């Protein structure tokens, strides 16, 4: 176990690296050439236009004003300046609610830390158990933790009382926050402008009809069952193949532009090969080759486009049905149409950007099978992914390395290297594994058949949370190979599990402190530097960009990746809650993480991210639930820990806590959740009435006409989803024509 | 443990007692004087009118036709004669679906028994383990059970394969049955006549408004949010006190009638005392006393009635809101009105008879607290109720009795007494405890705040099922005091529990066979005899009945008590499923129970019961779910049992079974459940359209006017709920006037 000195080295290292990141960021962001990387949001709006052209040539790329460098942290106060209401306008409710999670972290863990340091740390410090035991290796952190209180001591009552105080405080903050977020969402929904999804319902599993086409069938059905309010509908085309063609053409166009630019620079016709990756196959003139390939693909695309639009089989059994009023749409989304609940399924339509087109046509039975299979797959993923992690981690301790590579012993034994290995390595090993994971989980969620990107994100977040909980949290506490652990748990009594885990909790405090620094602090610092987008942007800028619009497209502003970020926050919440009563020393590290993240993400939300969709903060019930799961776990583990300290009564005294937590969850769910899943008729009616008064002559049919057309059929529209990357049709034509 | 001989004695005893019940029933039912006890349903319809008046006086009371006695079982074929559709008309869908549960029992367990006897019994019989072990006490039943197969034998694969076959067969039957019941319900809803609840929604938690009365507030709110379809509403009065007065008056009237009849017979003014129960206090003339008491109460009642109707505070924050069409009511019941989900709660209105008036006014927060408290109370009830049961059971074995009452030893040791004690006593001890229980559970459900009698019944059934599962099933398998068991389970690994329970399953076969006979067979036989209603009817008939209408009221036809009966059926299902692969000898006993019950309940439904409400079979999802819980338990226990037989691979081979069961549950829930909780817009629209075509001039407002008036305010209406027993107002007046 690392001692306080090692922790300090590690903390210093991490702080230093974070500081380096920040300095790098401060310098890079001031260069006009990086404007599109660090301020893409403003660029896209045309507010912060590309580099000032007035100055000399150099200043277009490098900032020579030395005074700006002095205030290299002045982005921080700037991040706070925008008030919340303006921020909602600027970045959408999703982003605002998301950064509130970090603020919530401060609100929950902050007072917990203050209380813990005022009450628990003195109680622990004066426990003096560890000093009494001679042979035990302990460090200063342990002296501040619950381990320092002697077995059977009456001091544990302080911990019990404090854990009640902690729980009640957490309830209070969570309740207020849930209430506030729900109110924000309702205000947002009430104030937002007319949007197609307010009038539209996604209808799936339209039953086949021998006499009518899908479109006719839908129209007849709704004319009968919603006679007064049915307006129009938009069928869904199976355009997956077309989307693939479009994407392929886009990639070819990039190559074409690359070679064309090269040609313009060097005035020499570039050569490429026709085989894989341009490295095998026969040599050809690159520009001719790509322009002819693009030509071919354009023709295939046009053919496919024609085919999809004319072939009745290309219409899937789903549609977006629009109504004359929000009230009618709200009614249709919440009621059941047919007595067979597996056909005519209705749900609130996601906003057009949010639709995940590929999953709209899955029959009900397939869905249940897919979900079963994915649940089993998730189980195996979670429990067998542990094997490599545990294996690498077991290598990554000093003794392990010395055993496997005995020749490295002298090097490792030097003090600084030792600290480095102990401080960094276990965290980094985990980190590498975790980078791959979200993509896999997202793929699994897609297989499950959800029909909107936001629900895919939420679903993946749930899986990832489970993974982090079992593999990172539990897996780090109880060492040993993965499946073995599962086996141990199965063969242990249910009351033993919290004991086993709880007992080793205090001993793992230093590991988690390191983890918070490596994964949390450094991760956030890296987030603000945006190294990968920076490099990619400059590469693209160098090779592909011809027009101002190309340059705009070259920049991927990124977005808040809820599926990856939120479960991680939950891990820090969990650590904070678990250690609040056990080793309060860990709390400041968590608080720094939350505070730092809050500033960074507020900055990013203001200046960088472009959200792919807007769900109106509909993920909050998940955040709330997972936070309560964390609280529940912390309570069970505390019970387990205390029951190993020969204070049996304490377990009983703590018993009401988890029950209270579960009840609080049920209560909050009933009280607030519906604001996130349903749209009340009263609100819909209010909005309808208002609109009817202000715009009596609105032509809603024309407004909704093309709202839910598959993006590949759309004219000039920005579609930022990375899932289906369509291009701008007209653009393509211009380029192709130019090249021929 | 009882051996085969003892079982035979017990079976003979039970068969004999069942036979005696049947003979008694056959004789009693033929007496015209008992007509109202055994055929109340026909009486109430006026089809089978009171005793034939044409014959001599004696034949009005006793049947002297000897020929009818010969065919004393001829009610059995008669019970089958009515086709199902007619039965639905005659007795309602609830009853028909309920008796289908017994039929389902035959469909599930019957083929299981055939397969088990063809395949498993030979495999077990030739296992010959028990004969090899010298010192083990075993009996013939054990030789047919899985205990007879040697440890580690390959024969267990037969059991594994068969348990798959059993599970698949059960899935198939359950799926078909769920589908059929859902279709029956939909057909029933589609075909039934106009009923007030089709147009009505129960609105609860109406928020307070400073400027308007509750009634105005409701009207305004619905005129705004359902402008086209709102028709009318009926506020709910807090008439609990009034209902109590009415009930008290009813009891006084019974006493009055009793004394008046006595006076008429004896021509002597009867005397009573004013104190408790008429045994203490000063002597008074009974007729004068009761008539004056009734007078007083009538005045108080009139005053209270006036007060309730005029006092705005007597109106609770709930109402029955009616719409112009079924479509609009279906919309309102399924959608959320306010964005605050704790106010303006809407749900499908129960039919007027089904409303549980007292619970309509509970605020949302109170409800969550009440449910939390009741959940805790249920936990304690289930786990501490075991102490007395286990205590009495431990007394009720031979050795226990001999220890406590040594002087009884010679008596007990006689063979027949021994068989009697072992066969009867443990079952009866349980039985007495269980009789008290449903009332307690129903009270708990009422505290939980459900607003319809049908949901109260369903809810109580759920509690009772849990109780039977833990206390009767598990409690009988693992002996030892109650809380001790809970403790053992908490301190055992989760994989050990199925092992512990599974291991002792085969040994308990004989106990459960006895239980099935005592509780099942005899219980059903007693059900058809209706001894308690018979006695009460004749007592009332003797002392209270003056007019033909009084006589009609004197008869309580009873009803299918879902909350008590259904969980018991589930226990027999569970026994059948658990023992199907372990001790198939038990199955015929279960089958006899199901077959016998089916006949008896079909007879009772046709001739006796008057249902208190009609919910359209809405309890089926519960039945289905609990059956699958039983199947799941049987699979887990088989896994536990096999893993103690040194065949580890078997546990893994059985692992997919519970997963499949859970998936099947999820699938069926999604596929069918909504038919039981929601009413599809398509069906509502169809019915509306049809009605509009056939009755264009229907005055719906007049039709709905008094539908949802609290029963104490109603004119002449039969209200059979035992919860609030109001009287017929006019009647009362007649009586009172007559007495004065």
Explain what you see.
The structure is a homodimer of 740-residue chains. By secondary structure, chain A is mostly helical. Chain A folds into two domains: 4-193 and 366-678, no CATH class; 196-350, no CATH class. Helix content of chain A is 66%, strand content 4%. The first copy, chain A, has 34 helices and six strands. The first copy, chain A, has helices at 4-30, 35-38, 40-45, 66-70, 75-81, 84-91, 93-125, 129-132, 140-144, 156-191, 214-225, 240-266, 286-310, 326-334, 364-384, 386-395, 398-404, 409-413, 415-448, 453-477, 482-490, 496-504, 509-529, 531-543, 548-554, 562-580, 587-607, 620-643, 648-654, 656-672, 674-677, 681-694, 700-704, 729-739; strands spanning 200-204, 230-237, 271-273, 283-285, 315-323, 345-348. In chain A, the strands form two sheets. Chain A has a four-stranded antiparallel β-sheet. In chain A, helix 10 packs antiparallel against helix 28, helix 20 packs parallel to helix 26 and helix 26 (562-580) runs parallel beside helix 28. The longest helix of chain A has 36 residues, at 156-191. Chain A is globular. The termini of chain A are far apart. Residues 49-55 and 716-740 of chain A have low confidence and may be disordered. Chains A and B meet through helix 11, helix 14, helix 15, helix 30 and helix 32 of A and helix 14, helix 15, helix 30 and helix 32 of B.
């Amino acid at each position: 176990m690392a001692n306080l000195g090692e922790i300090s080295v590690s903390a210093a290292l991490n702080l230093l690296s974070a500081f380096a990141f920040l300095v790098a960021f401060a310098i890079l962001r001031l260069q006009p050439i990086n404007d599109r990387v660090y301020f893409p949001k403003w660029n896209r709006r045309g507010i912060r236009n590309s580099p000032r052209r007035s100055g000399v040539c150099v200043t277009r790329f490098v900032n020579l004003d030395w005074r700006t460098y002095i205030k290299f942290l002045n982005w921080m106060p700037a991040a706070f300046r925008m008030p919340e209401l303006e921020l909602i306008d600027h970045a959408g409710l999703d982003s605002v609610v998301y950064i509130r999670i970090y603020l919530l972290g401060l609100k929950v863990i902050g007072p917990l830390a203050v209380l813990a340091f005022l009450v628990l740390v003195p109680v622990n410090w004066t426990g003096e158990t560890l000093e009494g035991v001679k042979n035990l290796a302990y460090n200063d952190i342990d002296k501040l933790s619950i381990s320092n209180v002697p077995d059977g001591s009456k001091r544990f009552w302080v911990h019990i009382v404090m854990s009640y105080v902690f729980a009640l405080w957490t309830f209070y903050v969570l309740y207020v926050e849930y209430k506030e977020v729900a109110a924000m969402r309702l205000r947002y929904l009430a104030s937002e402008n007319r949007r197609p999804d307010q009038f539209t319902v996604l209808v799936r599993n339209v039953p086949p009809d021998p006499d009518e086409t899908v479109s006719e069938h839908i129209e007849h059905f709704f004319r009968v069952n919603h006679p007064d309010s049915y307006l129009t509908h938009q069928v869904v085309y199976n355009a997956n193949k077309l989307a693939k063609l479009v994407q392929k053409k886009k990639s070819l166009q990039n190559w074409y532009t690359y070679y064309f630019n090269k040609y313009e620079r060097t005035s020499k016709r570039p050569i490429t090969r026709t085989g894989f990756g341009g490295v095998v196959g026969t040599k050809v003139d690159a520009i001719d080759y790509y322009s002819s390939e693009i030509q071919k693909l354009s023709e295939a695309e046009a053919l496919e486009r024609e085919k999809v639009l004319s072939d009745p089989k290309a219409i899937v059994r789903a549609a977006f049905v629009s109504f004359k009023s929000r009230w009618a749409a709200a009614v249709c989304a919440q009621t059941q149409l047919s007595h067979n609940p597996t056909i005519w399924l209705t749900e609130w339509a996601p906003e057009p950007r949010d639709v995940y087109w590929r999953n709209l046509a899955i029959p009900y039975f397939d869905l249940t099978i897919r979900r079963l299979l994915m649940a089993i797959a998730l189980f195996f993923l979670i429990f067998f992914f542990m094997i490599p992690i545990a294996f690498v981690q077991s290598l990554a301790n000093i003794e392990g390395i010395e055993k496997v590579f005995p020749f490295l012993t002298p090097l490792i034994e030097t003090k600084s290297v030792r600290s480095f290995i102990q401080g960094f390595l276990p965290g980094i090993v985990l980190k590498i594994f975790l980078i791959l994971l979200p993509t896999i989980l997202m793929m699994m969620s897609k297989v499950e058949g959800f029909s909107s990107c936001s629900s895919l994100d939420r679903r993946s977040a749930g899986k990832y949370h489970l993974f982090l909980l079992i593999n990172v949290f539990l897996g780090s506490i109880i060492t040993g190979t993965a499946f073995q652990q599962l086996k141990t748990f199965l063969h242990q009594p249910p009351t033993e599990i919290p004991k086993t885990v709880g007992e080793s909790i205090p001993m793992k405090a230093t590991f988690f402190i390191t983890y918070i620094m490596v994964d949390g602090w450094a991760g956030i610092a890296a987030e603000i530097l945006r190294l990968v987008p920076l490099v990619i942007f400059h590469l693209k800028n160098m090779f592909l960009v011809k027009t101002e619009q190309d340059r705009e497209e070259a920049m991927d502003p990124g977005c808040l990746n809820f599926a990856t970020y939120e479960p991680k926050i939950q891990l820090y919440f969990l650590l904070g809650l678990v250690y609040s009563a056990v080793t309060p020393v860990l709390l400041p590290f968590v608080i720094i993480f939350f505070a730092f993240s809050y500033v960074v993400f507020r900055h990013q939300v203001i200046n960088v991210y472009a959200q792919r969709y807007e769900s109106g903060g509909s993920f909050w019930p998940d955040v709330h639930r997972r936070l309560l799961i964390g609280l529940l776990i912390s309570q069970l583990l505390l019970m387990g820990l205390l029951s190993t300290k020969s204070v049996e009564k304490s377990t009983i005294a703590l018993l009401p806590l988890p029950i209270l937590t579960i009840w609080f969850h049920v209560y909050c769910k009933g009280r607030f959740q519906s604001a996130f899943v349903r749209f009340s008729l009263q609100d819909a009616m209010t909005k309808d009435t208002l609109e009817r008064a202000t715009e009596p002559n609105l032509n809603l049919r024309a407004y909704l006409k093309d709202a839910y057309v598959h993006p590949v059929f759309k004219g000039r529209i920005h579609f930022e989803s990375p899932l289906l990357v369509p291009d701008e049709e007209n653009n393509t034509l211009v380029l192709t024509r130019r090249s021929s």
